[in-house]
TrEMBL record:
Belongs to the TRAFAC class TrmE-Era-EngA-EngB-Septin-like GTPase superfamily. Septin GTPase family. GO terms for cellular component: cell cortex; septin cytoskeleton. Pfam families: Septin (PF00735). GO terms for molecular function: GTP binding. It comes from Agaricus bisporus var. burnettii (strain JB137-S8 / ATCC MYA-4627 / FGSC 10392) (White button mushroom). This is Septin-type G domain-containing protein. Residues 431-441 have a biased composition (Basic residues).
Amino acid sequence: MSDSYLSAQDLSHSHNGYPNASDPSFAPSNVPSVPTIRKKLMGYVGFANLPNQVHRKSVRKGFQFTAMVVGESGLGKSTLVNTLFNTTLYPPKVPLAPSEERPKTVAIESIGADIDENGVRLHLTVVDTPGFGDFVNNDDSWRPIVENIESRFDSYLEQENRVNRSKIVDNRIHACLYFIQPTGHSLKQLDIEVMRRLHTKVNLIPIIAKADTLTDEEVLQFKQRVLSDIAYHNIQIFQAPTYENEDEETIAEAEEIASKIPFAVVGSDQPIQTPDGRIVRGRVYPWGVVEVDNEDHCDFVKLRQMLVRTYMEELREYTNDVLYENWRTEKLLSMGVLQDSSVFKEINPAARLQEERVMHEAKLAKMEAEMKMVFSQKVQEKESKLKQSEEELYARHKDMKDTLEKQRNDLEDKKRRLESGRPLTPEKGSTQRKKGFLRST
Ligand SMILES: Nc1nc2c(ncn2[C@@H]2O[C@H](COP(=O)(O)OP(=O)(O)OP(=O)(O)O)[C@@H](O)[C@H]2O)c(=O)[nH]1
Ligand SMILES: [Mg+2]
């Protein structure tokens, strides 16, 4: 087991109503420096076992993960937040006298902790919301919650639009645990209404609260009821993706987690003693003890495993790629960021393309004409050169022919004279030769 440390970093509770501008989750760049209380985690959380690749990437950057708890009042949301953090980050609740009123959550509070496990840093934040259902009119119960979720999207969008985007703090809600009262009957109208308001903005994870108040069979039956109600009302809950290329162990783990949804949980931050003397987190009843961390007793361990280990990356990815992206598109459209064709005429891609094509064609035609001109010029030059050399050749040929003709005539003349015995035509040179000839004889 590794040493894990947890520091209550932003235990800033907003006191003046629902979404609060002083809440650090709304002004991420502006987190006030609250003294860090270092607490040692009692248990092993498990995110150090994330798949290696994700793990390595995240080791560098550290994780930011934010979960939100939503549901009717008194279902144990605040208790589960404490249970998740493995410690009482909230001021410990003093056991109340039966007549005393239970302290309710009255404003949206976010509670954060830096958890360090095997050198992997996780900044986990849980947003606790006041329970609803206590009022005569609960119609708008969802409003402050939706506003909170959207203002986190707003803050992210604002950071994305900054010049320097290297230090974006992701305070978006990556998972929303929706608490369902363990009635054993079907879902309440109020739950359906709230879930429908939330399902397009967050990864909804339904939770059956206070599962210790139901028997094992009742839990199984109620889970089926809840799932069929959710399907009937077209409510989109987080679907655990199944991996095909994973090892058997991972697939088995993923399947087991998927089979537990909606998670039936029991929350407790009070250590209790079991009949066999162990000190555990749980609840004591006259008929026995319910252990929070015992998988035979409830799904708390599976829920935590899903959040911080198996599906943390998927929850973050789906939030970013689908939920946030849809919200952003809608928001920009509603702000009128539409493509106004009159404004963008000059850079209307179709017109621009056409313009470019015309210009390109003109350029091609010009090049072709130039090339043709050069070609015909060269042909002309060549032709005249050829003509010239032909004339020269012809002249030379004529010369040679004339010379040859003349030589032939001369020779024939000589031949005739020799045959007729006539002396060769007296010539200057030949007279001398004759003289010489005569002299020697
Ligand atoms: N039986 C049982 N009781 C629980 C469980 N979790 C919490 N409780 C008790 O239920 C009461 C209400 O718990 P809270 O955690 O304050 O409930 P909450 O949902 O935060 O309530 P609001 O803040 O009003 O919305 C407390 O007395 C808890 O001790 C559980 O799993 N089983
Ligand atoms: Mg509460």
